[in-house]
Amino acid sequence: MARPSARTKDLATWLETRLAELAPGANLPTDAQLARAWSLSASTVKRVLSHYRDRGMLERIQGKGTFKPPGRPHLPCSTERHPSSVRALAENLQSLVYAGKYAYGEQLPSIKFMCLQYKLAPATVVAAYRQLADMQLLTKIGKSFYVGTSELFQQGVRKRREVVCYYGAGDDFTDMFNRNELAPAYRKMERELLRFGYVLKHDTLGNAKKNIRISTRTGRLPAGIILAHLSAGSFEMLRSTIDRMYRKAVSPPRCLVVGPYVARFNRNISFVNEGQTTTARFRACAQFIHRKGFKTVSLILDQSAWPHTHALVCLKLRTALATLYGEGLRFRFAVLPSQRRMSRAAFMDKEFSYYAPLHASNLTGGVSRTQIEKEMVVCASMGQVLKRLEHGKGHVWVFANDACAEQAYTWLRDSGIRIPEDMSIIGLENNPRYFSLGITSVTKDFDTMGCSMAHAIIGDIPLARTSSGALQTYGLVLERQTT
Asked: Within a domain: residue 59?
């Protein structure tokens, strides 16, 4: 049986959380809405819902929809004591390993801790650990279990292997490891590679084609190749060279491609699509907002601070919220354009001109331009934004720029509005400059991303992937004092 995808597991997790919150008899979203929200096929959604129906956790009535059963308790956990407890615990731990939540080489929690955590017998936990060890996911050393195969713990006697990283934004690697949006993930990737006996060699993308050709001809290929910050043009330029390497080489290196326009062009290549990392962050933000029960959400973008961020990309948050809330949410979008004196119509013309109609529709979740304009305000200053947005209990302001969040925090405090008692603030940058304010932040899970990128090169364990084949990325919520 094929391993469930990360999105399928995300849907299952959301369903269990939602069923615990809903009153008996309450409606769930339609199959079509769930399929759009998690980018799954209708048949996959039907299979997941049927699984919970068979367990008595929900009811499905043709022509009426899906409901939480009236007068029946929600089953809180799939690892309750029953004959499948070993399998359920093993599958849960397996998904955490695939997602990078347990680092490779890390000791798993003790048997006693797992017994208390899941209310299971020691024999059940030991059996689940042994099942994962038989799958080559764990290694037993003494009385403890560690993530990884036995080869992992012999790395100290191996010769260090070379991985070549070609960077597509010039020869200044300070940019890659300090200023690039994915810089924390790159740093985590390098540390993980070093820990496993790999050394990272850096070069510019302009030398990639020549070097790969020479290495293919001489047979002196590195253990891995990383193509970082790859543009669409560079992607096409290297396609034939990399395909030829995989055809000719007896033992070709593992390859990782990172870029804004990356699609899988060879099944041997792992890739990270930067657009999907942004989607993961907005999805995590939407799930957090829904869990906190906010009824009005205002998203604020200052394009002068994020000059390469288009407003339509930020509307991924609206799409994720609409799936979770349906019609029960009020959404507002405030924009400070890079050209401050601009009408709303001119701004929308400019934004839609960047994308083909189909791509724009995907970004907006199929919402019409007319509806977006009704929800949007275009302002020339942050002062105008603060005066025009609604605030009060049940309201949350989400800022793409933490500097704007700081201005809003100060303005609300000076106006006598308490945070988070009267309203809440979320930032999307996690800028250390504003940590003293305690602003709740939703960012990309760079540690998990970097770990997955490194092990795509090492090739020692299966990794969670999206339906398009990209490495699965996640958002990370850092809840502080403003929510």
From this structure: yes
